[in-house]
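Show me any protein, fold above all:
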Amino acid sequence: MNINDFVILPGSKTGTSVRLKAKTVRELQLEKVQLETENEEMEKRLRQLKSNMRREKEERKASNAYHWKSGQARPMTTQAQVLSQRRDNNNKV
């Protein structure tokens, strides 16, 4: 780091140290345009993602597929009964 990279600005009793920018105004303008373009692309992708998610949600809602209903007791399937009996038998031994 070089001492010439800093400048003391008046405004307070001790002064404020500020790192000088090496970029020119033209470079800053190009960077601003690039960032704005990237921002627009990201916003477009975000809108597309939201649209896709909304559409998928509506499709799931319309098909009533995999609708979770918590707190409803149902009879166990035969596979679940077998597993439960095995677990009980293992605990007894």
